[in-house]
Amino acid sequence: MFEDLSNKLESVFKQLRGQGKLTEKNIKDGLRDVRRALLESDVNYKVAKDFIKRVEERAVGEEVLRSLKPGEYVVRYVHEELINLLGGKFQDIQVAPQPPTIVMVCGLQGSGKTTLCGKFARYFRKKGKHPFLIAGDIYRPAAIHQLQVIGKQLDIPVFSIEGEKDAVTICRKGLAEAKRLGHDFVIIDTAGRLQIDEAMMAEVERIKHEIQPTEIVFVADAMIGQEAVNVAKAFHDRLAFDSVALTKMDGDARGGAALSIRAVTGKPIKYIGVGEKMDALEPFNPEGMASRILGMGDVLALIDKVQSEVDLEKAKKMEEKILKQTFTLEDFLEQLQEIRKLGPLDQLLKMVPGADKMMKGASMDERELSRVEAIIRSMTPQERRHPRIIKGSRRKRIAKGSGTTVREVNRLLEDFRQMQKMMKKMGAMQRKGKALGKMMNMKIR
Amino acid sequence: MFKKAFEKLKAGLSKTRKNFLGKLGDLIRGHTTIDDDLMEEIEELLISADVGVHATMTIIDRLQNRIKIDKIKDPSLVEGLLKAEIAALMGEGSYELDLSAVKPYVIMVVGVNGVGKTTTIGKIAARLKQEGKHVILAAGDTFRAAAIDQLEIWADRAGAQIVRSQPEADPAAVAFDAVDAALARNADVVLIDTAGRLHTKVNLMKELEKIKRVVQKRLPAAPHEILLVLDATTGQNAIQQAKLFNQVVDISGLVLTKLDGTAKGGIVIAIKDELNIPVKLIGVGEQVEDIQDFDPHDFVEALFA
Does A210 touch chain B (CB under 8 A)? Predict the structure, then answer.
């Protein structure tokens, strides 16, 4: 029953696209489905209602009726409105004019605050800051220790006071220590709290008052439901937080709560957490997210990634090799590594339009790739260049060396042979295409 | 199991009740006839409680059917009918854990990150200990920083024994050792903690399958209970979670946590309707005693009482 919002909207607009003209009725039909899709993605009931109203007002216009492809107009309106609602361009965490910059992280229990603190520390150190962590969660068993372990992993200092019962004192002393040591980026982890817990809300208010953070980040789990609105509003009323971080975005929750939180607080989402590892933090991209919601895929983000990680020189050489049919297992290995540099495969695929749907059910096993890599690495350079020479005993040796089985080695060799065959065809087609193009050009002239 | 007083449960659910009843009462009083407006407002109420579009439509369809068949005109009767329809969706029956049947009774606890698995285990352990049971905890979350220490603190509080290993050790081995220890020490219950994992991570889900398989090597009938912990604030994604965890390890029941907030946890209605997985326990706070049996009747009563 549950599909992601993008799949839903894709099918909705496919229906709209099939129709010649946009009438008031079929807009309403289409938008009812959009509304349903939004609700199934946990966009708040009222937020979804307002959103639909705005789109409807814009869509039922003469301009649209005159157009040839009315469905596409609606897609554009929905898309634009989503971007509007999510907020414009990316804004980074504010930097204090007088260092240190102090970032305070707050939110419900289990939203991922402590992990996010570690990610922030790592991220901003990479940007040239000198981070300092303060462990302000004195309630959850082992929460302080959790931050200490993270700090140790990252080699970033963590301030805590053993046995201290007052979080405000810890924060005040921690800040003094950070200043004394000359750190310019202080991150304060606070305990998770329910927005209706008066004593706990008063505590975090006191911390704010005492510390005067440069930026207060409200952390929300991407899987949160209709409650997102109440929780965000209550935290905002008490703390007037500056920005939002959405965690656990690597799951399959569409994060409709992002729209809701933005709508009720007006505060921008700045960062998203996309995994349990410390480097799994990304700037929030409203266009990308809106596109992703609409099933257009986060192509922008993918292009960014490819451009920053992939060696273009290498890619060009690879292309030549494919055309000249001199592509070997060595090249294959190299390419595999280029792809893996981009990040986990399932995340990459999510950025490609339609891939999500196509790959549904097919498991993207990262370890499978590791095995392929191990097999190729267990071959001699000669074997990689001329896989034909790999016979029985070589196969056995390769399987042993890579910790796999002969069957797996066989399968890889067979797959590679198929791939070479395909490349041959592609190369041939390309050459023909070029020749044809030349002829055409001549004729035109 | 937890036959004790339901003070906290009532405190927890009363918030839900106040919120829901207040709105439902006001809403119905504002209507003199049963019309589309009333239905739309009920729809909003249910969706706002995270019941979900699909289950909400089912409930409203059934409600409208009843209204038509019984030729009901008085809006004040709608509340009772609505309650009955939800109760029907939730099903009847008792969901008590039966610990007397086997020894050791092995309970494995799974769920996505941050839902409260370790806390839930601590609370269950404390209650069982109070009932005089010999409890062993398996520190199976060897991944998250300090998760083992967190469970150890809970074991101390509860007076339970703990079987632990080094961080990043194989959780299946920890679980195996815990069951082994339980057999050797004649313990009553083993509670296996596991690392939080998103249901979409294929490898991590395979790891869960492995833990179960390895435990069965030591005790073929175990785990006797596999509980999926759900955060009451979770929206529609909870259905996906239940579905995928169920595919991998056969969930026997849900624990609905964080019900002491304003979240209503309406998604369990959809999960029961769609996957027929019952809620067995609810979490209503961070203290040792803040765990209670779930009673579907009470739950529905509390929503509308």
Answer: no
Note which residues in 379-418 of chain A have CB less than 8 A from chain B.
Answer: none
CA dihedral sign of residues A334, A335, A341, A343 = negative
Domain A5-86 falls under CATH 3.30.1490.190: no
Neighbouring-strand partners of residue B110: B228
For residue range B53-103, list pLDDT tens digits in order: 999 999 999 999 999 999 988 888 888 889 888 888 887 655 667 777 788
Q: Which residues in chain B are contacts of A44 at CB distance < 8 A?
A: 48
How far apart are alpha carbons B280 and B137 in whole angstroms? 20
Cβ contacts (< 8 Å) between B258 and chain A: which residues? 108-110, 194
d(CA A124, nearest CA chain B) in Å: 21
Which residues in chain A touch residue B230, judged by CB atoms under 8 angstroms apart?
A: none
- Identical fold, A5-86 and A101-293: no
Of the candidates A248, A221, A268, the residue with the CA atom closest to the CA atom of residue B235: A221
Q: Which of B53, B146, B231 sits opposite A39 (nearest CB)?
A: B53
Contact A140 B202 (CB under 8 A): no
- In chain A, residues with a C-beta closer than 8 Å to the C-beta of B234 are 221, 223-225
pLDDT at res. A147: 96
Q: How sure is the predictor about A445, in pLDDT bands with cuts at 50, 70 and 90?
A: very low
Of A39, A110, A228, the CB nearest to B115: A110
B146 to chain A: which residues are within 8 Å by CB? 142-143, 145-146, 148-149
Residues in A 287-346 with any Cβ partner in B closer than 8 A: 346
- A246 close to A284: Cβ distance less than 8 angstroms: yes
In one letter, which amino acid is A390? I
pLDDT tens track for A171-207:
999 999 999 999 999 999 999 999 999 999 999 999 9
Q: How many residues does the structure list for chain A?
A: 445
Q: Which helix (H) or strand (E) holds B128?
A: helix B117-130
How far B200 CA lies from chain A's nearest CA (Å)?
Answer: 6
CATH no. for A309-439: 1.10.260.30
Q: What is the pLDDT of residues A382-439, one digit of tens each?
A: 898 888 888 889 999 999 999 989 998 998 888 888 877 777 776 666 565 555 444 4
Domain ranges of chain A: 5-86, 101-293, 309-439
Per-residue confidence band for A13, with pLDDT thresholds at 50, 70 and 90: low
Rg (CA), chain A: 27
Residue A47 CA from chain centroid, whole number: 24
Q: What is the pLDDT of residues A269-284, one digit of tens each?
A: 999 999 989 999 999 9
Residues 6+ apart with CB under 8 A from A275: A250, A344, A347
Residue with tokens 């990304």: A282
**Residue with more model confidence, A91 or A232:** A232
Residue B305: band (very low, low, confident or very high) from pLDDT cuts 50, 70, 90: very low
Residue-wise pLDDT for B30-50, tens only, equals: 888 888 889 998 998 899 889
A278 in contact with B at a CB cutoff of 8 Å?
A: no
Mean pLDDT, chain B, rounded, equals 87
Residues of chain B found within 8 Å of residue A41, distances taken between Cβ atoms = 236
Quick check: A33 contacting B, CB < 8 Å?
no
Q: Nearest residue on chain B to A274, judged by CA atoms?
A: B198
Of B50, B115, B150, the CB nearest to A225: B50
A101-293: CATH topology: Rossmann fold (3.40.50)
Q: What is the pLDDT of residue B1?
A: 42
Of residues A293 and B168, more confidently modeled: B168
Report chain A's mean pLDDT, rounded to a whole number: 80
